[in-house]
Structure formats: C-alpha cells, structure tokens
Amino acid sequence: MAKIRLFIDHPLAEGQGFALNPDQAHYLSSVMRMAAGQEILVFNGRDGEWRARLDQLTRRGGLAQALEQTAPQRNPPDLWLVFAPIKKARTDFIVEKAAELGVARILPVQTDHTNSERIRQDRLQAHAVEAAEQCGGTFVPAVDDLRPLSRLLDAWDANRRDPLGG
What we know:
By secondary structure, this protein is of the alpha/beta class. The protein has two domains: 5-71, CATH 2.40.240.20; 80-154, Alpha/beta knot, CATH 3.40.1280.10. It contains four helices and nine strands; from the N terminus they run E-E-H-E-E-E-E-H-E-H-E-E-H. A five-stranded mixed sheet has the order 1-3-4-5-2. Strands 6, 7, 8 and 9 form a four-stranded parallel sheet that branches.
C-alpha cells in the first residue's frame, strides 16, 4: 500500500488524470526517490482519499491517475478555532494540531495584547495541508488572514450556534 499522501487541487474519480505541481513533483522524485509506475495516496478535501499511480515524473512536473478510492470523504464538525497568534513556531504548532484534530476553519485574530502584528497566511495554510497529509485526514481547514478580534465579532453571524448555549 502506498505510504506517501499528497493534497492535490483536482477532482478525483476512478481513471481521473491530474498534473502534479512542481513542488509536489520535486518532493516525489528528488526527496522520496519515486519513479513513474509507483503509487501514492492523494486527497483533495472533497472526494475522499484515492490510490494513484504516477504515470510521468520529473523534478519539474508529473502526471498521475486516480485508481481507486481508499477512504471516503470525512468532513469535520462545524468547529472553528479562533486564536491570537503567538511566537512563530508556536503559532505553526497550533495550526498543525488544529488541522490534525479536525477543525473546519482556523481564524487568527489580533487582540489588544497580541504580540504578533502580522502572519503569513499562505505559510500557515501550507502547515495545515502538511498536517492533513501526515495524519491521514481527508479535509484541510481554511486558514483565514489575521484580523482584529473586534472586526470578527462585529461580523459574527447571529445564526451561528453559541457553543455555551447562551
């Protein structure tokens, strides 16, 4: 059974072909030393996990084909993590663990006492993807941009369930 899992942004179905982006192709060919004909597991956050065969692979790109579904799509409960970023490595850790635990959305907020003035949303999203790849999840939570807590609360949907029952 294939042990390498990748998140891809393509529809998945039996016989569906898809291209690998340059980063994925480099990882598979140069880091993992894979070659055409070998199999990996892929997921896209919508269609479950699939066993896929690498049809072409170079360091700059590749083509693969979905062969069979190995796990159904498992969407998380409607659980959001709202948190104030802390030091860089610890913020990364929070995002990784939230993705592994199965939150649906990650919302970094700036409070009056937040030390971090900015975050790199794209880097945190990449950490969420890596965490989902490693833990066996089929869903990657969206990581929002940093925003003031007051703006989040002002725009809060009144129909969103209050977890404390208030």
